[in-house]
Amino acid sequence: IYRRGRNKYIFVAFIILTVVYFSHKTDNNLVSSFGNATERQKRDVNVKRARINRETYTIPEPCVGCPGENGQSVSLTAEESKGLDEVMKKEFFNLRASDKISLWRSIPDTRDGLCKSISYPLDLPSTSVVIVFKNERWSPVLRTVYSVLNRSPKHLLKEVILVDDQSDIEEMGQRLDDYCEEHFGELVRILRAPTRLGLIKAKNYGARNATGDVVVFLDAHCEANTGWLEPLLYRIKQKRSAILCPSIDMVGEQNMGYSGTGFGSVGGFWWSLHFNWAPISQRILSAQKTRVDPYPSPTMAGGLLAADRKYFFEIGGYDDDMEVWGGENLELSFRVWMCGGSLEFVPCSRVGHIFRPGHPYNMTGEKGKGDVHGRNSMRLAEVWMDDYKRLYYLHRRELLGKDFGDVEDRRAIRTRLNCHSFKWFLDNVFPEKFILDENVLAHGELRNPTARLCLDTLGKDEKGSIPVSVFQCQNGMSANQFYSLSKDNQLRREETCAVSVGSESLIMSSCNLSNLQHWTHEKNGTLVHYPSNLCLDVEGVANTEQVKLKPCEPNKLSQQWLFEHYAK
Ligand code: LR7
Ligand code: MN
User: Fold this and answer.
1) Ranges for the Ricin B lectin domain (predicted)?
2) ipTM of this complex > 0.95?
């Protein structure tokens, strides 16, 4: 099986090489592998190709006294703010502010002081930085490029590859080609996607065209900070199967202010297969020699990472049947861990990112029929999560039985690399992850049979604290009604636990092992809040209202609770 897999790999590589060879033969202009050849040839005659390379590229003079220097936030005049609402609605960040800032502005060095005294060896792997973009704007994209060129050691940066995923923005066409050719020469290559690829396939496409030892992916609205590259490369040199993420600083979407974020987080996930941040555990902290050592993380946000290019493809690149946005970050995270590599966060490498509350592009793919994240996540669950995919479908019942395309090639990776099970991943990489229905005393709907009411989140955002509410029971059909009674006697959801506030009120708030979150489910059917010795009671409560704590009365029907499932 291993040999067959390898032959197939070699065959695919051969095809890719052939295609790349011929596209370059007919296209000695490195700027693009696609698009209108005659137009480019015409331009080649007229435009004297800039011979800028690693040696001749010079860092532009600092923009003294310009807005936004040193990562400062930018304010707009009344005149400049006219129509800003419209801009924000379209771009989801303040393009006006961004346009006022130099393309190569200075930003504060947000590294821990310890990082600054580390010296890295000179012979580190060479790097291709791949930046994919769809409807991104001029100033953030070029600021990303300049930050990479200006803050990467020349001898380590082989190229920056911009992949235009069929943007609709006028200036990102010919004008971008010309600008890059003039200012960056062969250091920056622009590839135009032949069709709308979506960010996942676009990243694959960029990486397949990369030639550096290491491929680094960045979003098209980033700012790489001082010394960002060396710690990533150094770690890859030590361990080629490590995928590394820089620490992500914040560039404010309202005013473009650059601010460092403390570290102390790892990547986690919701069983609905969305990414979240989780606190770094003592288990991980104690394994670090210094506080700035790279440390393992179960998952990553997805946009910013470095990997040995060949290793990246050995373990399957990205899933080329995932569309547009979402899911690929968890898929790669699970995969690299399960197949023998690791995913690590690197505190000394810092890159800023503009966090936008929305997307300036169409989010619906063809096959996903609107829900690309849902379908992409089905593919990942079906390939990597074994029986634990039940917990995804618990949140996405409507997807059960829906088409998720062919995953045989992806499953073949698991066989070829002899990868671990998802249970291995949970046990060894993410033992802190709460498994809703495993190792618990009870789980499922928590019903008060007489009132026919069940505990329910009412769909509220569980990233913050929310009330403990009830709603008509849904016969196990709603993930909002899935609660567990943990081995630690918490009445909980995936991340939050029922806790008393004041005398009789209850909220769901982040879990800790404090006494206030301790419950006992008595044989007589009551749920007793242990520290207050009060009982969970639906007396006088209707749909969508909050349950309260009341003095316990063992025979009171409004205090009778029944979980859907109890551990045997
Ligand atoms: O169809 C598309 N084609 C593209 O080329 C859609 C998007 N893109 C480009 C886009 O222009 C951008 O440069 O892809 C890049 C990422 O898209 P964003 O910036 O809209 O995504 P995001 O920052 O909201 O999303 C995060 O999750 C995604 C899941 O698929 C990707 O993994 C993103 O790279 C990822 N971004 C980060 O992790 C940045 C740090 C965020 C944090 C914490
Ligand atoms: Mn982004």
Assistant:
1) 442-564
2) yes
